[in-house]
Amino acid sequence: MNIIKLKETMNQIHIPKEMQEEIIVNVKNQLAKRRKKAALLKKIAASAAALALILGAAVPIQAGIRYLLKDRLESIPAKELKTINQMLQNQSDVQADRYSRELSKEEKKRMKQLEESYLGGKFPEHTIPLTDSLEIAPKDLLCYNTDTGTFCLPKQILTDEELLQIIDFNYTTDYAIAKGSSAQNAKKEQSAEENRIKAAIQDEGGISKQDALNAAAVYLKSEFGLSAEGLEFDLFLDENPEHIMVYHVSYETQDNIAFYSYGIDISAKDGRLLDTSCARLPR
C-alpha cells in the first residue's frame, strides 16, 4: 500500500487526526527500512560479484590486479573493514554512491583511463577525506559524505589525484562488503557447489585435479608456446550451461611492460581442451 492510498483509507476511519498522522509516519518508516535493507543487500551482492572478478582466481582478464591491488586491499585492517561496512549500513541511501555534481566528459574520460592505471598499481597518495556533515566539510575540496553516500566534488575540474581517490574508495568499499558476512555466506554456497561437482566427477570417473594441471600445461605449450614451469597458476571447478563439468586453469606472469594471463578450460570428464583465453594488462 502506498502512502497516498493509506491516507485515503485513514480518512475513512473515525480516529483522531493525530493518531492518523502517527500511523502514517510509522508506515513510512517501515517502508523506508525495507527499501534500505533491500538496497543494501543488492549492493552487497554487486560488490561481492565485483570483487570476485578482482580477487577470483579464474578470471584471466584480471591478471595484473592480483599482484598489486590484491596486496593493497588485503593489507586493510579488519577493524577498518568492519567500520566501512557499518558506515554503509547506516547510510540514509545505500542504493548507489552519488556525485554532488555531474562529472564532465573530460573527467569521465580521465577516470576511465586512471582506473586502468589503478588496476596496474598506480594508487593515490592519500585517501579521500570523509565527513558526516557538509557544514564542516572543506569548501572546494573533494570529500565523501558518509551519511548520504555522496561524493562532494569541488566546482573546479578534478585532479588525477582526486579521481584516483574516488576510484580507490570504490574498490576499498567493495572489498569491505565482499569480506562481510553476506559475502562469506555466498562463498560457502560456492564451496558447496564445487564439492558437489567433485563428487559428480568421481562418480563419472572423471580426471583428477593433478591430471587437469598436467593437461593444462600441455595445452599452454601447444596453444601459446609457453612453459607452465615457474608460472603462478590457479584452478577451480565449474559446470557450464551445457552441464559440462570444467576445470578452469589460469596462468599468470609479468614483465616490465605488462601483466599477462592465460586461461585453459578442460573437460573434467576426459581432459579434452574446451576453450582458451589470454589477456594483457599494461603496467
Quaternary class: single chain
| Alpha carbon gap, first and last residue | 54 Å
Estimated radius of gyration: 25 Å
The beta-strand count equals 8
Helical stretch count?
A: 8
| Succession of helices and strands | HHHHEHEEEHHHEEEE
Classification by helices and strands: alpha/beta
Main sheet record? 4 strands, mixed
Helical amount among residues, as a percent range? 40-55%
Shape label: elongated
Strand order of the largest sheet: 1-4-3-2
Task: Name the average pLDDT.
Answer: 75
| Low-pLDDT residue spans | 1-10, 27-42, 56-65
Strand content: 15-25%
Provide structural commentary.
The protein is an alpha/beta fold. Helix content is 51%, strand content 17%. It has helices spanning 3-11, 17-55, 65-74, 78-90, 105-119, 160-178, 181-203, 209-224, and strands at 98-99, 130-131, 143-145, 150-152, 232-239, 245-254, 258-267, 273-282. Strands 1-4-3-2 form a four-stranded mixed sheet, with no helix packed on it. Strands 5-6-7-8 form a four-stranded antiparallel sheet. Helix 2 (17-55) crosses helix 6. The radius of gyration is 25 Å and the shape is elongated.
